[in-house]
Design brief:
With 96 residues, the chain is α+β, with helices and mostly antiparallel strands. 35% of the residues lie in helices and 33% in strands. The chain has one helix at 56-89, and strands at residues 5-13, 16-21, 24-29, 42-46, 49-54. A five-stranded antiparallel beta sheet has the order 3-2-1-4-5, with helices on one face. Strand 1 and strand 2 (16-21) form a beta hairpin. The longest helix is centred in the C-terminal third of the chain and has 34 residues, at 56-89. The radius of gyration is 21 Å and the shape is elongated. The termini are far apart. 14% of the residues are buried.
């Protein structure tokens, strides 16, 4: 599964931009954008390329959903680790 992540453009230098998502900054290519982007715009980024400009509300809603999904995965992973630990520490009954 591929995921394009909404990212905010902080700087633009020709066809390259510096974007930020969840506090991380990354340089991306703006060459595939069908319309001109400006600092402060949100774009969908995948594999180092900004693919589409999106509005601020959609970007914030999408980022919130990604955070919620990550929390669910984290809880499920923690539960799996706990269950595996319990299984590994149980003593098998002594066979006669």
């Amino acid at each position: 599964m591929c995921l394009a992540v909404p990212s905010k453009i902080l700087e633009i230098n020709n066809l390259l931009g510096i974007v930020e998502v969840y506090g991380a900054r990354k340089e991306v290519s703006l060459v595939l954008l069908p319309e001109e982007a400006h600092e402060g715009d949100y774009v969908l980024v995948h594999a180092g390329f900004a693919l589409k400009k999106i509005n601020h509300e959609l970007a914030k809603e999408s980022l919130k959903l990604i955070e919620e999904y990550a929390e669910v995965l984290s809880r499920a992973e923690a539960e799996d680790l706990s269950n595996n630990f319990l299984k590994s520490t149980l003593v098998s009954p002594i066979e006669k």
